[in-house]
Amino acid sequence: MSTLVPSDMAETPGLDALRIVLRALSPRAHALTTADSDLLRRRLCAAVDELKHYGLPAERVVIVVKQLATDAGFGQHTEESLRKMISWCIEEYYSFLARTTPPEPA
Questions:
Q1: Secondary structure tally for the chain: helices H, strands E
Q2: Does 71 reside within a domain?
Q3: Which helix or strand (DSSP H or E) is residue 94 part of?
Q4: If the chain, 106 residues long, is cut into consecutive pieces of 10 residues, what is the mean pLDDT of each piece?
Q5: pLDDT the model gives residue 9
Q6: Domain count, the chain
Q7: What is the structure's pLDDT at 30?
Q8: Cβ distance 50 to 2 under 8 Å?
Q9: Residue 3 falls within a domain, yes or no?
Q10: pLDDT for the residue 1
Q11: For residue 2, what pLDDT is reported?
Q12: Residue 18 has what pLDDT?
């Protein structure tokens, strides 16, 4: 377990699901199918939303996701998959922020 994830959120459903998918996809990370990528993105986005909900800044979320991927052996196979995951992570983080921030009064 990474020490980068605060203990009060280390065992959340989204992070657990992401860990499971990362472990399952790690052996074929260099050649993910479209279905693999879609599943990974859904699990990643759910985990990012959880981390954001807990108040982690974007930089910390990226570090946590990178650590989870490394712990699962995901980064050993291809930097391209890891870069794609980080891109999705940032996109989802700011998308979540836009969805949950009330509009400013006119």
A1: 4, 0
A2: yes
A3: helix 79-100
A4: 54 91 91 94 95 92 92 77 90 78 65
A5: 56
A6: 1
A7: 83
A8: no
A9: no
A10: 43
A11: 46
A12: 96
Q: Answer whether residue 86 is part of any domain.
A: yes
CA distances from residue 96 to 22, 71, 81, 83, 103 in whole angstroms, order as listed: 22, 25, 22, 20, 14
Other beta carbons within 10 Å of 13: 10
Does residue 81 lie within any of the structural domains? yes
- The interaxial angle of helices 13-25 and 58-71, nearest 10 deg, is 40
Distances 30 to 27, 62, 73 between C-alpha atoms, Å: 8, 20, 12
What residues contact 1, with CB distance under 8 A and at least 6 apart?
A: 10
> Which of 55, 53, 54, 51 is closest to 66 using CA atoms?
51
φ and ψ of 6, to 5 deg: -55, 145
Q: How many Å apart are CA 14 and CA 51, to the nearest integer?
A: 9
Length of the chain equals 106
Tokens encoding 104: 């400013």
- Range of the structural domain that residue 14 is part of: 10-99
